[in-house]
Amino acid sequence: MAAATQPHVMVLPFPAQGHVIPLMELSHRLVEKGFKIDFVNTEFNHDHIFKVLADKGAIPGGLHMLSIPDGLGPADDHTDIGKLVQVLPAAMFSLLEKMIRSKKIKWVIADVSMSWALELANTVGVRIVLFSTYSAAVFALRMNLPKLIEDGVLDETGDVKRHEMVQLMPPIDATEVPWVNLGSTQERRRFNIQNVLKTNQLMALAEMIICNTFREMEFEALARLSNALPVGPLVAPASGPKGNFLPEDLTCLTWLDTQAPGSVIYVAFGSSTIFDVSQFHELANGLALSGQPFLWVVRPNFTNGIQEDWFKAYNDIVEGKGLIVSWVPQQRVLSHPSIACFMSHCGWNSTIEGVLHGVPFLCWPYFSDQFCNQSYLCNVWKTGMKLCQDKRGVVTRKEIKNKVAQLLGDKDIKERAVRLKAAACESIQEGGSSHQNLLKLVNLLREQ
Ligand code: UDX
């Protein structure tokens, strides 16, 4: 395609791993359709992505990796989500305006967690598609937040005022509303709630809401959204940047090849979940007790205070039955025939990736939308089981052992997961609902 006619789109993820990955997946799809993509990371994440990118020459021609500062100082923690939410708009807005003007960009695909960017439609006249990194249900819940406050279920600081089940799709307890359990301090929680209420008012500026989901799975939630287009499940690119912040350990794939079909527990808690030392030990002992082989992702910042010696001793105990690595190619792992189930924090990407590969879940949510995703898995699709805490708030080794056995012995759960996988695969095949929606998006973005 001649450069002059090549449709050009800016993609703007929130600077966190679970946001960069799906927007990168969507970008690869658009590049395949002939688009030129300017993918704008923060400088901090941009550097990380390039550091871990195994084949730096594999970036497809249409994909341009750009970066701008995030507004934090050199001594600040650039992974502090709460802080980033506060500083990004002021740091980025005018830089984005300049970039859009100088490159004559007509379209931006902005992450829903960057909804403040919708103002760019007013200031530089760019057209904006919003991308939801969470489920359509959570997007609908977000739009319903003023009503929950009006009804007295929550107040404007995120305090729960009436303990009840929020009967949207899927049902969750009021304390599990994502913006209520997000934020390490009262002040941050108040900021998050206020931020959602404020940016909700900009939603009319979005020409379309793209969701990494599919119609057959979230029919009810999607019906609540007038302008939503489900294009998922998005699939990881075979080559080029996936947006990983950590290098993938590919040895896990050869290890999986040596395991029996349907035997391995895959254990991974996304990019930001943190376990305290005692919970970490309980999990380690629970996995050992389960008697099943397991592949466990332990990121460098997953827990504090575990020494190298501990890993050596633990490996002796599990006698090669368990493999611990710091980051894996998750979609390839989930598609491996040896995988029996996914012990997960239920981040939306992990949830939809597990659905795409027909894997039953052991649910262990940490924060934000993950409780809602757990409710989908356990109460609606019925393809998962919840790991329950004891009175001290600990998921014990016994609970882990029992639930692993229960899940692996449950044929109905596996059958439902396989059926959901079939529907997911159909939706992204030629003629499927998500495939058709992707073409609708492509046609819209071609209006340059
Ligand atoms: C968070 C929220 O949990 C999620 O619901 C929200 O929509 C985005 O931000 P995160 O905690 O990172 O995300 O979890 P998740 O949404 O599951 O995303 C993690 C991503 O990292 C997935 O795409 C997963 O495939 C990938 N991953 C994880 C790897 O590639 N390798 C690993 O070893 C672990």
UniProtKB/TrEMBL annotation:
Q: Which UniProt keywords apply?
A: Transferase
Query: What InterPro entries does its record include?
Result: UDP_glucos_trans (IPR002213)
- Lineage, top-rank taxon, reads Eukaryota
For the keyword Transferase, the answer is yes
One annotated GO molecular function is: quercetin 7-O-glucosyltransferase activity
Any keyword Zinc?
no
Q: Which CDD domains match?
A: GT1_Gtf-like
Give the family this protein belongs to, as stated in its UniProt record.
Belongs to the UDP-glycosyltransferase family.
Report what the protein is called: Glucosyltransferase
